TrEMBL record:
NCBIfam families: purD (TIGR00877). Keywords: ATP-binding, Ligase, Nucleotide-binding, Purine biosynthesis. This is phosphoribosylamine--glycine ligase. Residues 115-333 form the ATP-grasp domain. PROSITE patterns: ATP_GRASP. The keyword Electron transport does not apply. GO terms for molecular function: ATP binding; metal ion binding; phosphoribosylamine-glycine ligase activity. Belongs to the GARS family. Its EC number is 6.3.4.13. Pathway: Purine metabolism; IMP biosynthesis via de novo pathway; N(1)-(5-phospho-D-ribosyl)glycinamide from 5-phospho-alpha-D-ribose 1-diphosphate: step 2/2. GO terms for biological process: 'de novo' IMP biosynthetic process; purine nucleobase biosynthetic process. It comes from Sulfolobus acidocaldarius (strain ATCC 33909 / DSM 639 / JCM 8929 / NBRC 15157 / NCIMB 11770). PANTHER family: PHOSPHORIBOSYLAMINE--GLYCINE LIGASE, PHOSPHORIBOSYLAMINE--GLYCINE LIGASE, CHLOROPLASTIC. It is an enzyme of class 6 (ligase).
Length: 478
């Protein structure tokens, strides 16, 4: 019986553990996490594996886990272990693993590296950008540019810190200049490296994510998903790791057509090839394009993940009816050409549940007890995935982030109704937050997509796709 070592502890890893634990290959699932995730633990126990507790970003601790388990292959869920070279450690020990080496993971770790790569290899869907390590210069550029821009941390910081500056007046008061500089400084404070601030041209349109499996030779796209980043209803409030997701029907979303899917796949495939050329080694793992349908390009890259998204994984994998656990092994061992993906054509909705305090005050959101009627929720048709929640004795204790992700695979209206029933079976000693509107705004997004589609198709017919005009008070360009 083959053994697999899973690295990670969130809802995404719970989904992956379930896929591995229910595979016809009969894998024994071992896990390394910083705390005991109840969902992962359930799979570990069922498959006669072992749960190891340790630092998932520590090369030494992962190396010890590899020696102890001696797995046939590994699966790395989160991005931080990839940034710390954990995939490299598996390969040094001769163990195949799902996840790129640290050099390849730069596509997610550094937004500047990603943007430069896209321009160097002329990959479609690229945005113009500038980057700064000096806060004053960044603020000065925004003021002088005069157009709408997106201001981001130059490194991956868990989806936080993006600011949009829209249609600035050419001349601002001293008070507005001061406020703008402070906002830029706040974004920069999230970054540890030398390059602090990335400024991109602002684009608008419906967002979606395309995840592509690749072993460096073959490419296998998964169904599209859409993530809901903001904490509160109607897309307002602070950005989070994701408060929910939708996927389907079929491989698409209601507002993304097959042609746009194919163009998105081509963008991600070209990027994987470009990474391999740049770092001189094959990219093996998942490359995920966080995309937006825009008037300037059509399918456009906002950022990349070097792994599966969370909560997108909870929307996509439960829809896969083929053996996804076996697909992960084929990916790790560079036999992806033998894999196939079969899906439930019905869509899915995921809603995340978090303790009050998330995402701004982790201490406030930590240490609370959650109760749920898991058997009844499963009977209704809800898949329950445990995230930032620890199994401590007979209790479920929150760790400060999204505690649960609840998934239903069904027509959108029916899925929303089942989710509402399942949410009534969850309680806590603190207030729990979740979004009611996930899966309820499809028609608005379809309308938005049609407007954007008219614009980019017009550009395409004129041969000016990807071209836009710039202006500033001084006549300067990007």
């Amino acid at each position: 019986m083959k053994k697999v070592l899973l690295i990670g502890e969130g809802a995404r890893e719970n989904v992956l553990a379930e896929a591995l634990g229910t595979s016809e290959e009969g894998y024994r699932v071992f896990a390394l996490s910083s705390y005991k995730n109840p969902g992962i633990n359930e799979i570990v126990m069922k498959t006669n594996g072992e749960y190891l507790i340790g630092n998932i970003n520590s090369v030494e601790e992962v190396r010890r886990a590899i020696k102890q388990v001696n797995p046939d292959f590994g699966v790395i869920g989160p991005e931080e272990p990839l940034f710390h070279g954990i995939a490299d450690e598996f390969r040094k020990e001769g163990i195949p693993v799902v996840g790129p080496n640290a050099d390849g993971a730069m596509i997610e770790k550094s937004k500047v590296w990603m943007r430069e790569l896209m321009w160097k290899y002329e990959i479609p869907g690229r945005l113009r950008f500038r980057y700064f390590n000096n806060m004053q210069e960044a603020a000065k550029f925004i003021l002088e540019y005069g157009g709408s821009v997106a201001v981001k941390p130059a490194e991956q910081v868990g989806g936080r810190g993006v600011k949009v500056v829209a249609d600035l007046q050419a001349y601002l008061s001293e008070e507005k200049r001061s406020a703008l500089s402070k906002g830029v400084e706040n974004v920069a404070s999230l970054v540890k490296g030398d390059v602090k601030i990335l400024i991109e041209e602002k684009v608008d349109g419906p967002e979606y994510t395309l995840h592509v499996l690749t072993d460096g030779k073959s490419y296998l796209p998964l169904p599209l998903a859409q993530d809901y980043k903001n904490a509160y209803e109607d897309g307002i409030g602070p950005e989070t790791g994701g408060m929910g997701s939708i996927s389907g029907p079929d491989y698409l979303l209601p507002f993304i057509n097959r042609e746009e899917f194919d163009k998105s796949f081509e963008i991600v495939r070209k990027t994987a090839d470009a990474i391999a050329k740049e770092v001189k080694q094959a990219y093996v793992g998942i490359l995920s394009g966080q995309m937006m349908l825009t008037a300037i390009w059509g399918p456009t890259i906002i950022e990349y993940y070097s792994r599966l998204g969370d909560p997108e994984t909870s929307a996509i994998i439960p829809r896969i009816t083929s053996d996804f656990g076996r697909t992960l092994e084929l990916l790790a061992t560079s036999h992806l050409n033998k894999a196939k993906i079969e899906i439930n054509e019905k869509p899915s909705i995921v809603k995340a549940v978090a303790p009050l305090g998330y995402p701004l005050d982790k201490n406030m959101a930590t240490g609370h007890t959650i109760w749920l009627d898991l058997p009844r929720m499963r009977e209704i048709g809800c898949n329950v995935y445990f995230g930032s929640i620890s199994q401590e004795g007979g209790k479920l204790i929150t760790k400060g982030s999204r505690a649960l992700e609840i998934t239903v695979v069904d027509d959108y209206d029916k899925a929303v109704e089942k989710l509402d029933r399942c949410f009534s079976l969850i309680s806590s000693d603190t207030k729990l937050i979740f979004r009611h509107d996930i899966g309820r705004t499809i028609s608005q997004q379809e309308e938005k997509a049609e407007i954007v589609r008219f614009s980019y198709k017009s550009r395409e017919s004129k041969g000016i796709l990807g071209v836009s005009a710039d202006w500033s008070p001084n006549g300067g360009l990007w």
